[in-house]
UniProtKB/TrEMBL annotation:
Residues 1-12 have a biased composition (Basic and acidic residues). It comes from the Bacteria. Keywords: Coiled coil, Membrane, Transmembrane, Transmembrane helix. This is Cell division protein FtsL. Residues 71-98 form a coiled coil. It comes from Arcticibacter svalbardensis MN12-7. Pfam families: FtsL_2. Residues 1-21 are annotated as: Disordered.
Amino acid sequence: MSNRFRGDKKEEDQDLEPTPEALPKVVMPRNFFTIILTEGVISKEAASEMMPFIIFIAFLGMMYIGNRHFAEKNIRQIDKLNKEVKELSWDYKTLKADLMLKSTQTEVANKVDTLGLKEPVEPPKKLMVPLLIEEK
């Protein structure tokens, strides 16, 4: 075929194009869906009318699945945070107990003894300062 306009077709080119009668018929496979759509309860028109509803149902199904995944993710995160809070609570309690032990008088005296400080044996003395009040 050479470069020509479509209107300049020769007879030999027209014979090469198949006619609709010459085309082989497409045979649909026989399965459940084709039987229902062609011979059964649902026709092609009814199925195409139901398509928006089917798409809506599929969308709701996807939303349900997504919501379920989101909820499970939140539950796992809550459990993880609860475990972390328990660990931090245990750390707080052990540190508080250690601090209470280290702040007792005997522990403080033992620690300061290495610095050369000693615990006084006699009680502290009270200093008395006389107050001078001027009268006007």
